[in-house]
Specification:
heterodimer, A: mainly alpha, Fumarate Reductase Cytochrome B subunit, 2 domains, 3 strands, 58% helix, elongated, B: Alpha-Beta Plaits, 4-stranded mixed beta sheet, 10 strands, globular, binds protoporphyrin IX containing FE
C-alpha cells in the first residue's frame, strides 16, 4: 500500500494517480469542449479568432464539430467512469453532508477574518457543494449533448420539442459550465486554498497544511490507514477546538 | 394531394419503424446513418420541360414565389444596427426586393441559364434553383438555436422567430442557399451589435400550403408543368424512369448525402455546372458529398462513451476491491 504520510518530507498524499488522471482528463477535454463549443457558434470568424496563428480551422464548423465530438467522447467516458468507479468503491468524501451549508458560510466568513474555520475533513464543505453543482451541470451537458449527437447521426427530423430542449439546455448549461470553471479556478487561487493546488499536480499537499486545515482527514488517515507507523493517535493542533475522535470514520480517505 | 398524403403517411410510419431499427444497428456501424432519414415527400424538376419562360420578364415560378411570400419578412429596422466588429457587414435586400436573377431573402427561387454544346449543337438549358431539402442537412443539425428544422415530411423550414442570422446554415450548405436579411428577427431585442445579424431566408416548399394539402406556389404556377411533388418513392421512381427514357442524368439523389429534390436532365450536370453563372446567391451543380459524413465516426464514439465509461469503471472498481482484499490479508 502507498504510504500516505511522509513526516520526513512534510507531505501527505491527497489524490491517488487515478484521481489525478480523472481530474486532468476531465479538465483538458472540458476546456477543449468550451473552445470548440464556442466555435460551434458563429463566433470565430466574427471575433477574429481565425486570425490567431494556428486557429485558421476555428471557423470551419465541420472541423470544430469533429474536435467537439472527440473531446465529448473523452469527457463523457471520464465522467461515467468517475461516477461508477467511486460509487462502487463507496467513496463518498465529495458528497455534501448535513450542515455543509452552515459550515461553508463559516469558512467563507473566516476568509474575511471573521471567526475561525471549523475543523475540516478532506474537502471543504463548499467543495462538496460545488462538486454536486458541477456534476449536475455536467450531467445536463452530457445528456443534451448525447441527444444532439444522436440527432446529427440518425434523426435530423427529430421532434421539434426534443431539439429545442436539447439545444437550449446545452446552451444554458454550457454558460453555467464556463462560470463554474472560472469559480473553481478562482477558489483554488484564494490564499488559504492555494496549498491544495500542488495536490492536483503532484498528488501531495504539505503535511503541516493538512494537519492544521484538515484535521479530521488527517486524523482518520493517521488512525486507520497508518496507525502502525506512528504512536500518535490524536490530532495535535491547537486551532482544533472540537474533539476529532468523536467524528464517525468514513470510508473515503 | 390529400389522398396521396394519407397513403404516404402510412409509408412514413413504416420508414419510422425502420429508422429505429437502422438507428440501433447503425450504432454498431452496420448501416450508413443517412439512410434512416428518408422524408416522405419529394419534388422532381424536369429540365427538358423548363424553357425559362421566354415570353415573361420574370419566370412564372419566380414571380409566383415572390407573390406568395410577399410581406412574410417583417419591416426592417431603420437604421439597421451596425454589427461589431466593423468587418461584419449588414446585408440589406429590403430595397432590392425586385432582384430575380439570384437567391435573396426576397427571392427564394430563380432560374439559371446554361448555354451548352450538345453534339456540336448549341442548346439553352434552364434550371430553377432553390433549397434542395436535403435528407440529413447540416444547415438543420448544427443550428445552435434549433431554429432550422426538418419536418417529418422531409421539408426543411427555418423559423424566422428563432433565427439570429449567424449564417452558420449558409456556410455548411454545399450551395450556400440561405440568404440573410439584416435588421429583422430576435437579435434586435438582445444585443444587436454583438450577437447575430438578422434572419436567414430560403425556400420552405410552401410548408403551410402543403399542410393544407395544396401544392407549392412555384410548382402550381409553372405553365409547362416542369416541376412535380409527391410521395418520395413515387417521385424517385418517376425520376429514374424519366432519366432512363431520355438517357439522361439525375442531380440530387446523392448530393449532400441525398436530397428530396431531383433534377432530371438529358445534358450531363458537369456540363451544366461549367455553363451556369456562379457566385453569391448563384449555386453551381457539382456533385457534392455530405461534409458532415467525416464526423460520423466521432459521433458514434460519443454515443458509445457512456456505456464504455461504465464498463471500464465497473472493471476497475472490482480490481481495486480485490487488490484491497489481498493487501488486507497480507497485513494480517
Ligand atoms: C486548468 C484548469 C484546472 C485547475 C488548475 C484545477 C485545479 C484543481 C485543484 C487544485 C483541485 C484540488 C482541490 C483539492 O485538492 O481538494 C481540483 C479539484 C477538482 N477539480 Fe479542478 N482544476 C481545473 C479544471 C477543472 C475542470 C475543467 C473541472 C470540471 C469539469 C474540474 C473539476 C474538479 C473537481 C470536481 C475537483 C474535486 C474537488 C473540488 O471540487 O474542488 N477542474 N481542481
Ligand atoms: C464542457 C462541456 C461542453 C460545452 C462547454 C459545450 C458547448 C457547446 C456549444 C456552445 C455548442 C454550440 C451551441 C449549440 O449547438 O447548442 C455545442 C454544440 C454541440 N455540442 Fe457541446 N458542449 C459541451 C459538451 C458536450 C458533450 C459532452 C456533448 C456530447 C455528448 C456535446 C455535443 C454537442 C454537439 C453534437 C453539438 C453540435 C450542435 C448540434 O449538433 O446541435 N457537447 N456545445
Ligand atoms: S440545400 Fe442547403 S439550405 Fe437546403 S436543406 Fe440542403 S443544406 Fe439546407
Ligand atoms: S419551372 Fe416552369 S415556371 Fe419556372 S421558369 Fe421553368 S417553365 Fe417557367
Amino acid at each position: 500500500m502507498v504510504k500516505h504520510i511522509h513526516e520526513d518530507k512534510n507531505l501527505m498524499l491527497r489524490h491517488e494517480a487515478i484521481e489525478l488522471a480523472e481530474h486532468w482528463i476531465v479538465a483538458a477535454s472540458g476546456l477543449l469542449l468550451i473552445l470548440t463549443g464556442l466555435f460551434q457558434l458563429p463566433f470565430a470568424a466574427r471575433f477574429n479568432v481565425i486570425k490567431i496563428p494556428g486557429f485558421a480551422w476555428s471557423a470551419n464548423y465541420v472541423t470544430s464539430l469533429y474536435v467537439h465530438y472527440i473531446a465529448a467522447a473523452v469527457f463523457t467516458f471520464a465522467a461515467s467512469f468517475h461516477l461508477i468507479h467511486h460509487a462502487l468503491l463507496g467513496e463518498k468524501g465529495m458528497l455534501p453532508k448535513k450542515g455543509d451549508m452552515k459550515e461553508s458560510i463559516a469558512v467563507i466568513k473566516s476568509f474575511f477574518g471573521k471567526g475561525e474555520e471549523p475543523p475540516m475533513d478532506k474537502y471543504l464543505p463548499e467543495q462538496r457543494i460545488a462538486y454536486v453543482g458541477m456534476a449536475a451541470i455536467m450531467a445536463v451537458l452530457i445528456i443534451s449533448g448525447l441527444v444532439k449527437t444522436y440527432k446529427n447521426l440518425f434523426a435530423p427530423d427529430l421532434a421539434a420539442w426534443a431539439i429545442l430542449w436539447a439545444t437550449w439546455l446545452h446552451n444554458i448549461s454550457f454558460i453555467l459550465f464556463i462560470l463554474a470553471f472560472i469559480a473553481h479556478v478562482g477558489a483554488i487561487l484564494l490564499k488559504p486554498n492555494l496549498p491544495m493546488a500542488r495536490g492536483i499536480f503532484t498528488g501531495y499537499v504539505r503535511l503541516d497544511y493538512a494537519r492544521h486545515r484538515h484535521p479530521i482527514w488527517y486524523a482518520r488517515v493517521r488512525n486507520t490507514v497508518e496507525p502502525s507507523r506512528s504512536g500518535e493517535t490524536i490530532v495535535n493542533c491547537e486551532e482544533n477546538k472540537r474533539p476529532v475522535k468523536s467524528r464517525k470514520h468514513r470510508k473515503k480517505i | 394531394m390529400k389522398e396521396k398524403l394519407k397513403v404516404s403517411r402510412r409509408g412514413f410510419l413504416k420508414t419510422a419503424g425502420a429508422a429505429t431499427v437502422i438507428g440501433t444497428t447503425g450504432l454498431l456501424g452496420i448501416t450508413k446513418p443517412a439512410s434512416a432519414n428518408v422524408g416522405e415527400l419529394a419534388t422532381l424538376i424536369d429540365l427538358a420541360k423548363c424553357d425559362g419562360c421566354p415570353d415573361r420578364e420574370v419566370p412564372a415560378c419566380v414571380s409566383a414565389c415572390k407573390k406568395i411570400k410577399e410581406g412574410k419578412i417583417p419591416e426592417v429596422a431603420d437604421p439597421i444596427p451596425p454589427p461589431f466588429p466593423s468587418h461584419v457587414k449588414i446585408e440589406d435586400w429590403s430595397k432590392k426586393k425586385g432582384v430575380s436573377n439570384r437567391l435573396t431573402p426576397y427571392n427564394l427561387i430563380y432560374v439559371q441559364k446554361a448555354e451548352v454544346d450538345v453534339d456540336g449543337q448549341k442548346k439553352n438549358v434552364f434550371i430553377p434553383r432553390r433549397c434542395m431539402h436535403c435528407d440529413n442537412p447540416a444547415c438543420v443539425t448544427i443550428c445552435p438555436f434549433g431554429s432550422n428544422l426538418k419536418h417529418e415530411n422531409g421539408i426543411v423550414v427555418n423559423d424566422q422567430n428563432l433565427c439570429f442570422g449567424g449564417a452558420k446554415c449558409k456556410s455548411v450548405c454545399p450551395w450556400q442557399i440561405p440568404q440573410r436579411q439584416s435588421g429583422v428577427g430576435v437579435y434586435l431585442d438582445i444585443a444587436p451589435g454583438l450577437l447575430g445579424n438578422g434572419v436567414m431566408y430560403k425556400c420552405d416548399l410552401c410548408a403551410d400550403l402543403i399542410e393544407q394539402g395544396k401544392t407549392p406556389a412555384c410548382i402550381e404556377a409553372c405553365p409547362r408543368g416542369a416541376m412535380s411533388i409527391g410521395p418520395r418513392e413515387e417521385i424517385f421512381a418517376k425520376a429514374e424512369e424519366l432519366a432512363k427514357n431520355i438517357g439522361g442524368y439525375i442531380y440530387g439523389k446523392n448530393e449532400n448525402g441525398g436530397a428530396s429534390t431531383l433534377y432530371v436532365s438529358a445534358v450531363p450536370f458537369d456540363l451544366l455546372d461549367r455553363a451556369v453563372e456562379k457566385g453569391p446567391g448563384k449555386p453551381g451543380l457539382k456533385p457534392v458529398k455530405r461534409a458532415m459524413a467525416k464526423t460520423d465516426n466521432a459521433a458514434k464514439a460519443v454515443l458509445a462513451a457512456p456505456a464504455l465509461g461504465i464498463a471500464v469503471g465497473v472493471a476497475s472498481a472490482f480490481s481495486f476491491i480485490s487488490k484491497r482484499k489481498d493487501e488486507n490479508k497480507k497485513e494480517k
